[in-house]
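**User:** My hope is that you can spare some time for a protein that puzzles me. I have put the entry right below:
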Amino acid sequence: VTTDNGGNYRTVTFLYNPSASPITVSYDYRSSATAYTTGTVSVPAGGNARVDLSPAGTGHSGAYHFYTTGANPPVFYAMSAVDGGNTNTGSNQAYDGGFTLVGEPSLTTQVLLSLGIGRDPYSAVNPTENGNPMWITTVGNGHTPATIYVDYNGDNAGALTDPNGNKYDVAYSLRELEQQKLFDPDGDQSGMLVYSLDPTVKIAAAWAQDPGVAATGQPGLDVGTLVPPLREGGGGKTSSVVVDAGGDGEVSAGDTLEYDIRGANSARSAIPGPFAVTDNLPSDVDYVPGSTKYRFTVGGSWQAWTGIPDDGSGTPFPLDGAGFSVPGTLGTSQQLQVVFQATVKPREQLAGETITNTGSVEISPYGLLLPVEWTDTVYGSIGDRIWIDADGDGIQDGGEAGLPGIDVYVDLNDNGVRDSGEPLDTTDVNGNYLLSGLTAGTYTVRVDPADIAAANVGYGPTYDLDGNATAHVAVVTLGIAEDRVDADFGYRVGASVGDRVWMDRDGDGVQENGEPGLNGVRVYIDLDNDNTYDLGEPATITSGDGTYYIGNLDPGTYAVRVDASTLPSGSTQTYDLNGGLDHEASVTLIAAEHRSDLDFGYRGTLSIGDLVWEDANADGVSASSITYNVNNGRIDVNQDGSYNNSDDGFIGSMRIIDGYVDIDNDNSTPIDNGDDGTFLGVNIVNGGFDMNNSGTISTTGSNDDGQVVYNTTEPGIANIRVFIDIDNDGVFDANEPSAVTDSSGFYSIGNLPDGNYVVRVDTSTVPASYAQTYDLTSPLDHSATVTLSGSSRTDVDFAYRNSASIGDFVWNDRDADGVQDPGEPGIEGVLVYIDADNDNIFDQGVETFAITDLNGYYLIENVPAGSHNVRVDFGTLPQGSTQTYDLTGILDHEASRTVTVGQQATDVDFGYRATASVGDYVWNDVDADGVQDGGETGISGVRVYLDINGN
């Protein structure tokens, strides 16, 4: 499509040739109701060509068709851009909105525009402007007009009714390559549905700015995109288990599956059949004879099933080969369903652990061949029983009952803790369990020792599949679709010991709130008293909150020992029952006695810190430095290598004018001793840097040349709680190590051993107006995952800033009407600040500010929720400026604005009109002497303009 205007506003198309040889691309456009005009363009090998499109109008209907010809037409790619004649790239005015061209075979009878806004929704300028329409043309109807229907919101609720009963808002009659721009009266084209009821008439569409309608500045949108074709139909396939031979609720060997194939009509016309449905039955399943059938929906309700007979020759499956043509009509928004059943073969006959079923549904009137595919994973399982081994022989004897209510899980990450998502089952009344949904591989199956202890603390292991060396644990290997029913666990009641290994943070040997357990630590009975864990010695691993127990012990005296090699590195013991602090405690047990006082305390020597700060500029850096060059006392603030009157700006909150420091903040060129002082560690004399400390500024030589460094450190945030989220539930619990930031924002959580930690900010202690800008590990979720390994960490920082902002435009209101009209430019270099003390003076180093950019925009960020006085520093405006607008209407260079948490206020604009003017005479200088002589007349009709952008 092309614009209605030539010149700068014209549309251009770029053609790319990916081949190794030059190609010729032809193009057509409609020049009358009965004729096309054709042209060609040569595109070099591996290169591109540009085609300037003629504007729509007399002898041109607006749309173009690009194509190649021949027995094997060469491939090319194409994209278009609006406003293609404007070469003023420095002001971001060229190519306002581009879109790719779509291949003709991909076109359909309908398009749906997702996001199609007509203007910048955040701009207060020209609130009724709608400058980004949808552009369409038809393909396939030649010189015959076709009716194209438009449903503005795609909701089938318009005031008009098409021949098929669908609701729409407006219709157009278009010939092929006649373009039409579509504007929704509500100013937003989002959700617009455009369609044809003729299957042979296709629609091509784009959404882009119309430069003849949109403003050159706000609220125009210099963007565009292809509107992709919307298929008239869709298809899909799923499966479900209808006979669960394994009883595990998963797809497994021997199960019977029902495959469900769907076709759907997404067009606004009924689709006549037949519909060819094919299915390539996988080799891993056997078809269930007589199970294939189909049905349609009518008015959204499913109709009765119709059986599809099995084939009489070849395979009985009726959907393989050429498939089956389902008769009938698929109404608008209705579905076709075809189902059949197949049984998964025994695991020994499976080619792999996935079964992929492919096929297709053909909707012939639209030329749609819809692929449908579904993949099932064939799973295995692990079971089977936890029992009371009364005689302790490791054999399930008759009469030995099961243990109900015991959790058994697959420890996928082998961390000794049942994590969310890990397969879990609880033994039934007979002690049976089943862990299903497992693919081939080796798994660690764990019994929850807390459940065993809850049943009887005297229970100790007598059997598991790989031996009792690792209590409550069995390693099981599964083949493809294998069901293992031999992962049993036996327990017998005897004497027992326990109870907890904990992190004694303050080292006082007392278990206190906030001192968590240490999980993953081996505790064992040192039968040979050699201070070393030997295979076969009764043992367990701490879990839950550092708890443990060892049961099935005979009466006697035992050395209960912590395997120090399983403790976190850097751990120092603070407590054991005997007081020896040698990781061991001796205990004497009588029959069936349970001792729950064998605790072991440890503390670490490491810490995690260190800063929570206010990240005002949201760069995730708390401290930074910038080096500036100084020449003859004058600073190169804009760092362009020169020292002149363009060196205006701010270093931090200190104003720099013409390269000199405005110490007294009077917004005038510093030339007197009012601008004496110090800045960046250097004495300032009359605004200049006294680099050689002579008391004067040298204007020649290099005495006052050098460099200065600006260091900035953003402030910390006090009273923020940071904690170790031991259970990773996102909530601070009483037993979790924590610290509160001091007045400078620093924190330190100490006495930690080596290990992996989730360090989290307690967001209930963060002011509501703050939004996060930084943490150590992605994503920004107020937490960081940290590993301690032999040394403390001081890099676990968190940054926040106030999430609201205020902006946004200071402009030259040329006609003084207080309205931002097209062509009225912004004013660059104006200081806008929040006048916190409301004294009408900008306080350097105290008050938050921003400087308007090249286009007059400003943005003050890191603004807390509340009411703020936003003020223009009048001294930074062009001389002779008179105010014409502010938000509150008082015209005192100030506007009061209230913002809520996270609000982006973009309506605090200020308008000014300059009172200066330029004139005044263009004349016929007959003697060419540059002097207006008597009798030399003026020349009328000559346009004189301000070349604002210098192009």
